[in-house]
Write a structure and sequence with these properties.
The protein contains three helices and nine strands. By secondary structure, the protein is an alpha+beta fold. The protein has a single domain (2-140), classed as START domain (Alpha-D-Glucose-1,6-Bisphosphate, Chain A, domain 4), CATH 3.30.530.
């Protein structure tokens, strides 16, 4: 597996940045090659992406999610990958986003792309497009404030 790590600073409050990241179905708006993300339940996501010109699908499970701190996942079917994204306030209006991604290239075309640094460039570009997306909007498109720890999901309470 290849591991990539990238950190960026987003000019938006921590809560807005984290909330936007929880809106997985919007990822095709700023992630190059991601064709579709379907959130099956609070922990499960179905992904479809074009990788090296080939359509690939996988199912990922969120393994850890703490509001305003971290979201971690691993593929449980299909293309093998895992990762985490950490969020940290730099100031009231700037948030550090630290993404770590592990990908196992599938086949010779993806392996060559990995060696040439194409995956790293795509990950960096995706983070930059996320930054532009949330900064241009000025607010998140939605939010999920629940927590995940292993198989446990704590759903946020609705205000009474």
């Amino acid at each position: 597996m290849s591991t990539f790590r990238k950190t960026i600073h987003v000019e938006a409050p921590l809560r807005a940045v984290y909330n936007q990241w929880t809106q997985f179905e919007t990822f095709p708006l700023f992630m190059d090659g991601v064709e579709r993300v379907v959130q099956v339940d609070d922990r499960t996501l179905d992904w479809t992406a074009s990788i090296a010109g080939q359509s690939r699908s996988w199912r990922a499970r969120i393994t850890e999610q703490l509001p305003d701190r971290v979201i971690a996942w691993e593929a449980i079917e299909g293309a093998r990958n895992a990762g985490s994204v950490h969020f940290q306030p730099v100031s009231a209006d700037v948030t550090m986003v630290d993404l770590e991604l592990e990908i196992e290239p599938h086949g010779p075309i993806e392996a060559v792309g990995d060696v040439l640094g194409l995956v790293r460039k795509q990950v960096e570009g995706d983070l930059e497009r996320f930054k532009t997306f949330i900064e241009a909007r000025g607010q998140e498109t939605g939010a999920w404030r629940g927590a995940v720890g292993g198989a446990t999901v704590v759903t946020p309470r609705k205000p009474s």
